[in-house]
Amino acid sequence: MLDDRSYKYISGKWSWDNKSDSLHFEPHHDLENVRDRYIETNGYKFLRTLNQVEEAVFRQEYERSESAFDRDAVSINDVRDLVFFLMPKEFLTMKFLEFMHKPAVHRLLHALIIYFEYFLRLVEFVLIRRDELAGDMAQIQSEQTNETKRIWSIYLSQYRMLVARNYSVILKSEGDLAKFYHMKPVIYTSTTLQDRSLHEKFLAVAIQIVWITMHRRAYYVIEKEMNRLFRSEHFIINRPEYMKLTAAERSFLYGRRNKNVNYLSQVSPLILELENVDEEDLPILWIGKRKYRGVNIRIATIELEYIVPDTQLLMIDVTHGILGHPKRFYDTILNINWSALRLENYSLETDPYHIIRQPTLRIPNVDAKQLHKMSQRDEHFFKIFHIYEPFRPEDLRKWLQREKRLLLFAKGETKLNIYIRCQRELEEKSGTHVEQKIKKYFKLVSRLRKETNFTHDDNNLNIAQFNSKGAKHQRSSGDRFFGK
User: Fold this and answer.
1) How far apart are CA 322 and CA 28, in angstroms?
2) What is the tens place of the pLDDT at every residue in 107-156?
3) 341: alpha, beta or left, given left = phi > 0 and alpha = psi -120 to 50?
4) How far is 321 from 449, CA to CA, in rounded Å?
């Protein structure tokens, strides 16, 4: 039997009960026929919800260990492990799991989350401007507004450049990524099918990770932009759910480097960002590798967002989706738990996690581009070292046994509620009362401290004064822990 108290996330629906004249919650015990059971990402079906058995298996077997660093805050590794549990079983290969645990892939996912945090803000700005320019009360854009939009477009291009830098490291496949390179070392032939499979799986998992991190909003915007970044617009499926952009909006969101040519000569937008890098943007390519020593505030801001760990963004008052938020605010599948959040009594003045305060765009100075070009540039000397959570081969092998564990747990051959049963036994057994433990403690100490008298009765517990009449206690070599 499974214990209901071990579940944090329950899938179901609310309906009105006429007999009790109140709302009634009907949980889904079998989710196979539920419409929102799966979500399709690049042709692959990912789980959208979990039933009780799956949630219990995930929490017991695949959640991050209690001994992990910053276990109480949401990190990229938490989102990654959740996506591993939701992804199709054909993704569970040792090669793909090992690839996703590499530090270079972690850095790429981190850069993608930062990029999409600001990309979604600009998309929201585009939708607001559409409403302002339409209708009878349309507003005319000033030149200052156009200049502000150009600066924001450059800012987004800088984040895209950071993603491209991390992506190029994976493409080169040097160091610990050499085993994932598509060219065989001896015969120098490309393993096209294997490389394509790895690329498609990574894109699907990256979309899911970014989507969950961004509070599961704007899924089709994220899916379209992710495919555009890594494939180019020639190879994007034209789905009716995708947002249609005008030429001006495309120029604003995709940047000045974006250009479409014949599909045989087309390169991905990420590589286009690296082909023509302005001299004032060159320090961005060193972010995360060496410490920036210049006076350019814009580059220093990007560096601060990138090098601060995802679980400590609270310290710099920056939000990247759900990263850094306490886990007590979320359920098992990282949906926000509003009932737990209401107890915090956050407001616009006291909201360290940007839950009540919505993310906004800061209006830049009009001369921001000139300041960016004229800033002093110094050499980068100091290297930056990142610390990542290590993974063990047995952890990867445990992921390979996911389907087998789910089958065993569903049959009841494995005990799921061992923690709950132990907790109940401790609650039911009558232990020693606190006052009795204190009495035993004082009795023990009274035998060790010869000069001190302890009096204890049923009502009061105190330490008596010394027997010596005004005489000062002389320390000896053995009473440094117990003497006065």
Assistant:
1) 27
2) 999 999 999 999 999 999 999 988 888 877 787 888 888 899 999 999 99
3) alpha
4) 58
Percent of the chain scoring above 70 in pLDDT = 82
Alpha carbon distance 448, 379 (integer Å): 66
Cα angle value 32/38/39 (rounded, 5°): 170
pLDDT score of 375: 81
Q: Among 221-225, 229-233, 266-270, 416-420, name the one with the lowest average pLDDT.
A: 416-420
Task: Give the tokens for residue 212.
Answer: 């969950």
Write the pLDDT tens digit of every residue in 372-385.
888 877 778 888 88
Contact, 54 vs 308, CB < 8 A?
no
Contacts of 356 (CB under 8 A, 6+ apart): 346, 347, 348
Picking from 42, 68, 74, the residue whose alpha carbon sits closest to that of residue 314 is 74
Structure tokens at 20: 């009790």
Count of other CB atoms within 10 angstroms of residue 319: 18
In a 13 Å sphere around the CA of 221, the CA atoms on its Cβ side amount to 19
**Residue 277 burial (10 A CB sphere; 0-12, 13-18, 19+):** middle
